[in-house]
Write a structure and sequence with these properties.
By secondary structure, the chain is of the alpha+beta class. The protein is built from 3 helices and 4 strands, in the order H-H-E-H-E-E-E. It is elongated, with a radius of gyration of 18 Å.
Length: about 80
């Protein structure tokens, strides 16, 4: 059966996301404890997130970390 470009890109995008997630989890496990890992959110946007990525598409990723605000005097610190 003929696979359209859209179907091929969607299949390849899903595989790429699965592979990226596995690699990232392995690296985070090696570097961070469970508490630190629980404070991180990582999400993809763009063509890869829409499952439209081609072989030339890059990864548009955002890393967010929950931090605690500490106010000392007039200075705001992130920890």
């Amino acid at each position: 059966m003929f696979e359209s470009v859209i179907e091929r890109n969607a299949r390849a995008s899903k595989k790429r996301l699965v592979d990226l997630r596995a690699d990232l989890e392995e690296r985070l496990d090696a570097q961070l404890d469970d508490h630190a890992r629980s404070r991180i959110t990582i999400y993809a946007t763009g063509s890869l997130a829409r499952l439209e990525a081609s072989t030339h598409s890059d990864l548009d990723a955002f890393f967010m970390c929950l931090v605690q605000k500490i106010k000392t005097g007039s200075t705001l610190w992130m920890r």
